[in-house]
Design goal:
Elements (H helix, E strand, L loop, with lengths): L2 H7 L25 H8 L14 H14 L3 E5 L2 H10 L7 E5 L4 H13 L3 E5 L5 H6 L5 E7 L11 H10 L4 E4 L4 H4 L9 E5 L13 E5 L11 H4 L10 H5 L3 H14 L5 H12 L1 H20 L4 E5 L9 H7 L7 E6 L2 H11 L4 E2 L9 E3 L11 H6 L6 E5 L5 H12 L3
The structure holds pyridoxal-5'-phosphate.
Length: 421
């Protein structure tokens, strides 16, 4: 089936007399007739739900939908995007290991990697999103376990060369993990370009209405863990009676371990209620992404021609450094987020934002309602000036998340506010 149909229908097939819509299984636990079945479930010898931390029918249906949308073998929902990023790397890297990550990633991911996981003993090197294959190649170490990038970065809107990152990573028998939050599978399917693992903050476009936090890890099933150095997947897991994930679960080894090992231990589960809400968002993702992109394109063109605007960063503008690469990876558009620098520096940015009426100042991004944010003083305020520059964030940068309202109303609001910078 085509992507638009998968958005609406994938993951849940009701049987005779069952609910048409994915039911909310608001239950921590599930009933079985025999202790033996329960034992087999624990030993991973049978499939079934027994405790919502490890699996739940509502989550399962939504996980199957997202796996179908990305073209993967399996997915696991998490409580937030942060938990998805955490699990995606700790599933294959431990203290003493090394990870290469793009410097242009979400601020929360950067903190998680650069501070928290570094403190726990995982070493990181951050690279420019436009690094050459030769330079990237030189940064691999014998203990490098993954490369982590973001398709369209929040908030700097860098578009990375997924194929290049994948091929260099694969030459070192290392998987490429891609945060595909901003593009969503509607605009980009990283597995088709060689990525091995995808993570999402489903709190953004996937939910799309700013009602439910969530995250997701998706496994392509394409990476051969036995060819690299991944003992966590290829040698017995003593906490599961010596199961060897690659032997017992084949292509799904990575995503099964995410659940049975890390979700068991971290407990960062998404609630069934949130998964239900997320599914409602996914049912219209294809419609909303097209509108977000069409609106953002009009708004970006308007901003580029406004005299109170210093610069506009949107990969859909021919003047943008990523225009060509975005056309390759995201021919239908990137996302609804634009970054813009208004005249008057930090103060001009504040005056502009406070004059907006329809667009509201919020931390959130990528939902149906147009909103704005000043990254340098909010989401990225913990970064040093050099780290801000490395992450592509100017002091006067405003992140404008274009919603799905009428574009003329959005532009009228921006126009009146720009007069006040
Ligand atoms: C918001 C975001 C995250 C973190 O997701 P939460 O759901 O807020 O935890 C990760 N990556 C990107 C690109 C994001 O925009």
């Amino acid at each position: 089936m085509k992507l638009d149909t998968l958005c609406v229908q994938a993951g849940y097939e009701p049987k005779n007399g069952e609910a048409r819509v994915i039911p909310i299984a608001q239950s921590t636990t599930f009933v079985y007739d025999s202790a033996e079945t329960m034992g087999n479930l624990f030993d991973l010898k049978e499939e079934g739900f027994f405790y919502t931390r490890l699996g739940n029918p509502t989550l399962d249906a939504v996980e199957k939908k997202i796996a179908a949308l990305e073209g993967g073998v399996g997915a696991m929902l998490t409580s937030a995007g942060q938990a998805a990023s955490l699990i995606s790397v700790t599933n294959i890297a431990k203290a003493g290991d090394h990870i290469l990550a793009s410097a242009a990633i979400y601020g929360g991911t950067f903190n998680l990697f650069n501070k928290t996981l570094r403190d726990l003993g995982i070493d990181f090197d951050f690279v420019s999103p436009t690094i050459s294959a030769e330079d990237l190649d030189k940064l691999f170490k014998p203990n490098t376990k993954a490369v982590f990038i973001e398709t369209v970065t929040n908030p700097s809107l860098d578009v990375v060369d997924i194929e290049m990152f994948a091929s260099v990573a694969h030459a070192h028998h290392v998987p490429l993990i891609v945060d595909n939050t901003f593009a969503t599978p509607v605009n980009c399917r990283p597995f088709e370009w060689g990525a091995d693992i995808v993570v999402h903050s489903t709190s953004k476009y996937m939910d799309g209405h700013a009602v439910a936090l969530g995250g997701c890890v998706v496994d392509s099933g394409n990476f051969d863990w036995t060819k690299g150095d991944f003992p966590m997947l290829t040698t017995p897991d003593e906490t599961y009676h010596g199961v060897v994930y690659t032997e017992q679960f084949g292509k799904a080894a990575y995503i099964v371990k995410c659940r049975t090992h890390l979700m068991r231990d971290f407990g960062s589960q998404q609630s069934p209620q949130n998964a239900f809400l997320l599914n409602l968002g996914l049912e219209t993702l294809h419609l909303r992404m097209a509108r977000h992109c069409a609106n953002a394109q009009k708004v970006a063109e308007f901003l580029e021609n406004n005299s109170n605007v210093e610069w506009v960063n949107y990969p859909g503008l021919p003047s943008n450094q990523y225009y060509e690469i975005a056309k390759k990876y995201m021919p239908n558009g990137t996302c609804g987020v634009i970054s813009v620098g208004v005249k008057g520096g930090k103060e001009g940015a504040a005056r502009f934002m406070e004059a907006l009426k329809l667009a509201k100042i919020v931390i959130h991004v990528a939902d149906a309602r147009t909103c704005v944010l000043h990254p340098a003083t909010t989401t990225h305020r913990q970064l040093s000036d050099q780290q801000l520059i490395d992450a592509g964030i100017a002091p006067n940068m405003i992140r404008l998340s274009v919603g799905i309202e009428d574009p003329e109303d959005i532009i009228a609001d921006l126009e009146q506010a720009l007069e006040k910078v």
